[in-house]
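Moderator note: this is an archived Q&A kept for reference. The question asked for a predicted structure of one protein chain; the sequence and the answer are reproduced below.
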Amino acid sequence: MPSLTRAEAAARAELLRVSAYHVDLDLSAARDSAHFGSTTTVRFSCTRPGSSTFAELRATSIVAARLNGAPLPAEAYADGRLQLTDLRADNELVVHAEMPYSNTGEGLHKFTDPEDGEVYLYAKAGQTFAPDIFACFDQPDLKATIRLAVTAPATAEGDPSRAQWTVLANGAGTQVAPGRWEFADTPVISTYLMTVVAGPYHGRHIVHDGVPLGVYCRRSLAAQLDKDSEELFRITVACLDRYHELFQIRYPFGKYDQVFVPEFPAGAEENPGCVTVREELLFRSAATAVEREFRAMVIAHEMAHMWFGNLVTLRWWDDIWLNESFAEYMGWRVTAEVTEFTGAWTNFAIIRKGWGYTADQLPSTHPVAPEHVETTELARLNFDGISYAKGASVLRQLVAWVGDDAFLRGVRAFFQAHAYGNATLADLLAAISEASGRDLTGWAEAWLRRPQVNTLRPEVTIGPDGRYREVTVVQTAPPTYPTLRPHRIGIGVYDVELRHRVEVALDPVVDGGRTPVPELTGVEAGRLLLLNDGDLTYAKIRFDPASRAELAALLPSMVDPLARALVWSAAMDATRDAELPAVEFMALAMAGLPVETAEAVFDGTLRFAREVVAKKYLRPALRPAAMTELAAACQRALRAASPGSSRQLAAARGLSQCAGLEEVELLAAWLAGRQLPPELTLDADLRWTVLYRLVVIGAAGEAEIAAELDRDPSALGAEHAARCRAAVPSAEAKARAWDTILHDDQSSARLVTAAAEGFWQPEQEQLTEEYVPRYFAEMPAMAARRPSGTARLVARFAFPQYAVSAQTVAAAEAMLAREDISPTLRRVVLDETDELRRALAAREIS
């Protein structure tokens, strides 16, 4: 099916007005069949009668299709498009089709629970998969009401072998006969927001402020949902109340369900009235505070979409930021404001924002709000760290510039003006400009229309009296995108604690990129001068030489976790840019990690030290010692943690992921239930983490994996086992895993991706070196055959990321020179090759 172009969507939006969809899905044979029935009636008008257009549908077969009562010829359907000719002023299209269930998490996904054999279904229509479910005009600015009816498997009364099915959708539903469900019309929504969820789901319910709230999961996870439901509802209620207060428009979609679904390919999906969430966020094992905080943010993020994206929807996919940047910003903001996770911005600074910085420096970087995204396939690639983390950071900077009151007044006016319609960047900027009294045209051009990230460096002169004589902030930009931006930042003077702080506006139009800070003249110098203190802007920061020399001694004792997060983030950026040697970063990690009490900072720093520095940026001869040092740091953190605490769990996971041959005996003892730290529970997921590391270093194999899968026969257990089996250091195991990665279309996409995740290991370079050229030779066929979302994940995880050499770069460049590779694969290889170049540069100075 060809990707819808921007021009095609604009022409169709000018031609059509869609009023209503009636969708009737026959899922009655779901337990046994690979297909379902879909009957759609679409009512729409045409501004130029006699014209032609097309609807989208990805069907196994079309049983019947009629336009205004006349059958459509068979040749009208080709390549996922149903051609419609000789349109009237008012039209009715009726399509009855057989549709395939999906195993990728996109379209109508079918999952069989390995624990009890029950079948579960859920629909993911966004961003381009509504035609996998029903015939439609699949673009965001052709909004319509959707009325849904579903025939689900009916369970005979008294049959103990089958559980009763529940069916959920965007609107409130009623079971009108055994297996038959009918749902209320939705308000006008875009096709990508339609969903249906069906199966023997277990649910809990409350009503708050007149809004029915529900949470659901698979039957085999009922105990976890019952345990967590109080927290889930508490956070949901707090977020709902806060959004009512902030936006002053009530939640517009009736009920609000959140359904934890299996094998979901994203974090969650903001379907109005029925949010789907990856079920890993319904924790079956012990969770750290960071994981619970992230779940709270996901709840807040998806609820923000009910206004940003659902009530007011982007006109076309070049305005993804109107959906995702705002939901990301509001998600972290409201999590910090109304939940127990008041330090959420620290997590954002060290983990989430780093995702944005990394994405923004890749060859595929793009503006937060690009002027033109030509196709839906290209648009899907922009759901990345730029649209989420950078966009949220830019909005935080916007709030710092115009003030929170003006920002919220503008947002409210935007909602009022465009409710149940579509809008663009210009519409939002006009609303905030009017509310704030500021012309945001220049600000938007610099921040939203131009890519890449600035770097802020301090130039410092200290007098003999120990006071600052002169401080200047120097802003630079990469030569490929030489844009200097206005920033409003804090500058902190630190010893162990903050001693002095000033706020500064950097305006390159006025100062040309060099901003003196006279407010610091005469202030007693500290051990650290920290730019962007408070993390209000989006920029890489660097340190003056005196501050850099103090980092290893100062980091372990700095009081403010957000300040520590900013220091660590700056050190990571400098290491990626080959300005800070990898060995120097490791020295910082050894000083700071063992005593780091903020779990987000511990997790983010350890992950970068392990996955990037030790495994890629250090020369191979230095890698074993680095992993040993990281394991020792985790051991120290583990000993210092309170028994049974979240920090203890984070340190235990860290040790399990860094362990070398020296720790084999300890990890094996843990699996046997011995030598465990006090009150640490070795639950299913921690057991798999331990086993995975033992497999990688050759201390466990197929026998241990099979035994663990017998112990944990769940869906997540199967994913862990697939990852472990791909990591077994044997030629036979690698051959089987590679065949799965390239050719297995029967297993779920999650199992294939797990195999790709486990395949490459830096400890196994010689074993896998023959697969490096095979990646570049064989991956194009895989990417052409599989759906783009699955292809993107598989291609990324299967990329030979640890084969850091000029030869690998050359092989990648040769592949990129081909004209027959998909845009999805091209982007993956382009970006991953840039990471290889960074690793090569880092090795040159380490």
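Archived answer notes: The mean pLDDT is 96.
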